[in-house]
Amino acid sequence: QVQLVESGGGLVQAGGSLRLSCAASGRTFSIYTMGWFRQAPGKEREFVAVITWRSGSTWFADSVKGRFTISRDNAQNTVYLQMNSLKPEDTAVYYCNSDPIIKPDSEGRLRVSGNDDGSWGQGTQVTVSS
């Protein structure tokens, strides 16, 4: 079992920045990828970013490309989500997930979805004011 704990959320003005952390414990050696997802009120959960644990390869949702970066500290078993140029539409609860599902769609583009057989953190609220 892997346990995940997110932190770093808060209230920020549009254009500001926040850095989220996701600390993993337990069977961390079994983790291949780590992902960030978010869910806004009344909306479905959506993919934000994912990173491979060993090589550090990354993928991002189109909505956050160029504004968010994802990184990991293997020694600390922690994944970070640096969020810059925040917009009100980034307001959501942000969750990290171990080993999200990554599959190509019919057009060959990678699609990332949450893995409910993996672990989820409790979430951290990000609120961006206009």
A few lines on this structure:
The chain is mostly beta strands.
Please state the structural category: mainly beta
Silhouette: globular
Poorly predicted ranges:
none
Walk across the major sheet and give the strand order: 2-12-9-4-5-6
**E-strand count:** 12
Q: What oligomeric state best describes the polypeptide chains here? A: single chain
How much helix, percentage-wise, in residues? Answer: under 10%
Distance between the termini: 40 Å
The arrangement of helices and strands along the chain is EEEEEEEEEEEE
Q: What is the radius of gyration?
A: 14 Å
Overall mean pLDDT score? Answer: 95
Q: What would you note in describing this structure?
A:
The protein is mainly β and 130 residues long. It has no helices and 12 strands. The strands form 3 sheets. The protein has a 6-stranded mixed β-sheet with strand order 2-12-9-4-5-6, with no helix packed on it. The chain has a 4-stranded antiparallel β-sheet with strand order 1-3-8-7, with no helix packed on it. It is globular. 32% of the residues are buried.
Keywords:
about 130 residues, mainly beta, six-stranded mixed beta sheet, four-stranded antiparallel beta sheet, 12 strands, globular
Describe the SSE topology.
Layout: E1 2-7, E2 10-13, E3 18-26, E4 33-39, E5 46-52, E6 58-60, E7 68-73, E8 78-83, E9 92-98, E10 101-104, E11 110-113, E12 124-129
Parallel strand pairs: 2-12
Antiparallel strand pairs: 1-3, 3-8, 4-5, 4-9, 5-6, 7-8, 9-12, 10-11
